[in-house]
Amino acid sequence: MTSPAPIAEPQETPRPEAAAVPALATDGVSHSYGPRRALMDVSFNVQPASFTALLGLNGAGKSTLFSLITRLFGIQTGRVSIFGHDISKSPGEALRLLGVVFQPRTLDLDLSLTQNLLYHAALHGISRREARARAAELLDRIGLSERAGSKVRDLSGGQMRRLEIARALLHRPRLLLLDEPTVGLDVKARADIISHVRQLVTEQGIGVLWATHLFDEIVAGDDLVVLHQGKVLAQGPVSRVITEAGAQDVNTAFMRLTGAQTMPGGGA
Ligand SMILES: Nc1ncnc2c1ncn2[C@@H]1O[C@H](COP(=O)(O)OP(=O)(O)OP(=O)(O)O)[C@@H](O)[C@H]1O
Asked: So where does this one cross the membrane (predicted)?
């Protein structure tokens, strides 16, 4: 993948006073599926220009949380705000600033790369001309310009993920949610995706919430939220979470926090 260049968005250059408003704030969020409690009093923030890893085992509640933030589900208890816009009270303003890459692939396999992007741009009310320019720019950035007219079906898994990230960025969001985006990818494709998303943080100031169960996707300097059985067990800069758990690394900190004994497949 070619190195992504920053999108020129002069009007969205982070201002000092804007840094005080979290990109994402969840406050006392709880959710139940009938009698099953999936999330309990979940509160944490994602800052602009930060990479926040949401670490949890299968069933921790990560996808449920994403469904609430994206308004797929209505909020039962608590509040979610995106750059200060409450998603229940001001959904238009909030969702305009949000880009999402869901865990299941959602591309149309029989359309071309460009067609997939244009279709999504139309949903966001972006003019055809502007959409074409943005699609070309994003395809260039993810190193897939030469495949613009190919059917998505012919791409590799890693290329599809890159295209999904490009699609999520078409409307120039300031907060990006990714739900276990590297599942099923090989080592090289995983590294490419992670490095691409980290560049979006450092070069464009995008706030990222990255759901994962893999420790090796988390590095010093990230923010970390440990979600376990629907509860936030720890949050803060990775180094602080490790220190407060009396551990030397994320893996051990996670095990101490959750009381887990063994970690399957090198992940949490
Ligand atoms: N539609 C549903 N109906 C009933 N229970 C559900 C439903 N969706 C999720 N759950 C339950 O809610 C809890 C949280 O699931 P969720 O899918 O949010 O976790 P997750 O961390 O995303 O896990 P995974 O990585 O496996 O997707 C689990 O106990 C799950 O069984």
From this structure: none
